[in-house]
Automatic annotation (TrEMBL):
Gene Ontology BP annotations: negative regulation of DNA-templated transcription
Function: May be an activator protein for the gylABX operon.
All copies of domain IclR-ED, residue ranges: 67-250
Name used for this protein in its record: Glycerol operon regulatory protein
InterPro entries for this protein: GAF-like_dom_sf (IPR029016), HTH_MetabolicPath_Reg (IPR050707), Tscrpt_reg_IclR_C (IPR014757), Tscrpt_reg_IclR_N (IPR005471), WH-like_DNA-bd_sf (IPR036388), WH_DNA-bd_sf (IPR036390)
């Protein structure tokens, strides 16, 4: 299938921006794209004309425009998963005072599509739209663990086990062993593997085809982790996962 170069370049420009690179100059964009400034300028002006890019008049730098938020909002609002799951996430957060997340699998990463902030601990890493590595997160493990071996092997092809904390899993063999543990227990754990001081539990969400389509997680301070608390939260999380799955048409079978 042919690739339209100008469209690809425009999309690559949009993907340069994130929460760490909120604004970029035309020189910075040119260097990162390895393209001449005149080419970048034309692309930016086209994106700006359609409100996908905006320019700061004070420093001349560019950032993402509100049109992206508008389009993203339409996508999220029309996702049955997010709509169905929201009330259950809110209830779980209310019951536990913890932050809960809803995450989808996209390639070799998870993507946060909803978050309900709890009062117990502030989770800095997670933001709606942000990506999270599979090997460092409870949700990532829950998204992958219940797939068949060929799917898992495909997901992990050329996967990069990037270190985020001293507790991060750093190789395929250890990760596969962890996935087996998740399958055996029916839930996943992230014990400060993605963010220091944060402990997470996660379970998969199934749809009407009996396939894992998402995962939900609960985050709390590692300092509050005790066996009796984890047992309580694990039960509530599994019940919430069951309720969301049933709302999506899944004939729930306990894992």
């Amino acid at each position: 299938m042919p690739i339209i170069q100008s469209v690809e370049r425009a999309l690559r420009i949009l993907e340069l921006f994130d929460d760490r690179e909120y604004e970029l100059s035309i020189t910075e964009i040119s260097k990162r794209m390895n393209l001449h400034k005149s080419t970048i300028h034309s692309l930016l002006k086209t994106l700006q004309a359609h409100c996908y890019i905006k320019q700061n008049k004070e420093n001349g730098k560019y950032s993402l425009g509100l049109k992206l938020f508008e389009r993203g909002y339409y996508v999220i609002e029309n996702m049955d998963l997010r709509t169905n799951a929201r009330k259950f996430l809110e209830l779980l957060s209310f019951q536990t005072k913890n932050t809960v997340h809803l995450v989808l699998l996209d390639g070799q990463e998870g993507v946060y599509i909803d978050k309900v902030e709890g009062h117990g601990v502030t989770v800095f890493y997670s933001k709606i739209g942000r990506r999270v590595p599979l090997h460092t997160s409870a949700v990532g493990k829950a998204l992958v663990a219940f797939k068949d071996d060929s799917e898992i092997e495909n997901i992990l092809t050329n996967y990069q086990f990037t270190k985020r904390t001293d507790k991060t899993i750093m190789n395929k063999e250890e990760f596969l062993s962890e996935l087996q543990s998740v399958r055996n227990k029916g839930f996943a754990v992230d014990n400060e593997e993605n963010e220091t001081g944060i402990f997470c539990l996660a379970v998969p969400i199934m749809d009407h085809t009996d396939k894992v389509i998402a995962a939900i997680s609960m985050s709390l301070s590692s300092a509050k982790v005790k066996d009796e608390i984890i047992d309580e939260y694990k039960t509530l999380l599994k019940e919430t996962g069951e309720q969301i799955s049933v709302s999506l048409g899944y004939g729930y079978k306990r894992i």
